[in-house]
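Following up on my earlier thread - several people asked me to post the actual chain instead of describing it. Fair enough. Here it is, all 155 residues.
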Amino acid sequence: MDEKGYLSKPSNHTTFTLELFYKGKSVLNTGWFYDDTKSTTHYLLCWPEREPINIYKEKLELEHIYCVEIMLINRVQLQSYLQSTLEIDANSINENYSSLVSRKVTTTRDPGINYVYSDGLQEKPLNLMLQKQKYLESGSVVAHYIVSEKCIKKL
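Reply from S.P.:
Thanks for posting it. Predicted structure:
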């Protein structure tokens, strides 16, 4: 299992991105979502609701977090869903990489799923951004909860 946290925004999270490819030392590398060398079977996606501090200037502490929405995602089921519904897989992305990174955002046939290229980051990742609802529709969600200091609520 690999935990992935969305920390850059304090609240109102509606999406989560999957790293497809990135550039390391000017070489194109497979991102964590399609990297076959990783033994990851599940991702724990975490969306914290927190105080609106600038995490690039201040250290995020536990007391800054009010609660966390979590989804446990089956990696293979999500990959299968993307391949069967939108023909998205590592090979098709690799073949279309140049056209996908020529724009910051490339839409798919599904408006809730988009390719996002972040050339402002050092690793220049090409990501796939999914709305939360798309994770639920994919059938890959094994568990979905809100966790706070006082309770755990199944969604």
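Residues 2-154 form one domain. That should answer part of your original question.
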